[in-house]
């Protein structure tokens, strides 16, 4: 498995969950586990399985990012939208810096619609 370099890339919750599940599977196979690493891995995977990323896939994330290209958002803003898809105008105000100046009301509604299409709310 390739080592993740700090500050080399932004990872979505989905990608973190995939890496940790692979790490967990590999440590089961090797029968060589450090207690603290196993605990952190277990707790993080358990937490992430209760978030939006449990229903995401690499394909849906890629399609979502393609649909978001027309909005001139930063990488960090798009990452936050993948991790916590906006469901209301307030969500976008919390994610996008200076959203009132950068996005029209129509843009905000389009972003919410796109989020709901690619990352449908859990029932």
Fold topology:
Layout: H1 13-30, H2 35-48, H3 58-67, H4 75-83, H5 89-95, H6 99-102, H7 105-118
Helix pairs in contact: 1-2
Structure commentary:
This protein has 123 residues and is mostly helical. It contains seven helices and no strands. Helix 1 packs antiparallel against helix 2. The longest helix has 18 residues. The radius of gyration is 17 Å and the shape is elongated. The termini are far apart. The mean pLDDT is 84.
Short description:
Helices cover 62% and strands 0% of the residues. The chain is an all-alpha fold and 123 residues long.
What is the overall silhouette?
Answer: elongated
Measure the end-to-end span.
35 Å
Largest sheet: none
Alpha-beta classification? mainly alpha
Strand content: under 5%
Number of strands: 0
User: What do the pLDDT scores average to?
Assistant: 84
Helix content: 55-70%
**Radius of gyration, in angstroms, nearest whole number:** 17 Å
Query: What is the number of helical segments per DSSP (H or I, 4+ residues)?
Result: 7
Order of helices and strands: HHHHHHH
- In the predicted model, the low-confidence regions spanning at least 5 consecutive residues are none
């Amino acid at each position: 498995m390739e080592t993740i370099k700090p500050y080399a890339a932004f990872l979505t919750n989905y990608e973190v969950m995939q890496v940790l599940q692979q790490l967990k599977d590999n440590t089961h196979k090797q029968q060589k586990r450090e207690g603290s690493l196993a605990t952190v891995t277990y707790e993080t995977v358990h937490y992430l399985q209760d978030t939006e990323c449990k229903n995401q896939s690499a394909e849906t994330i890629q399609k979502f990012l393609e649909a978001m290209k027309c909005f001139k958002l930063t990488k960090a803003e798009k990452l936050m939208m993948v991790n916590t898809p906006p469901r209301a105008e307030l969500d976008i105000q919390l994610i996008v810096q200076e959203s009132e100046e950068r996005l029209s009301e129509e843009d905000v509604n389009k972003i919410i619609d796109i989020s709901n299409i690619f990352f449908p709310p859990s029932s």
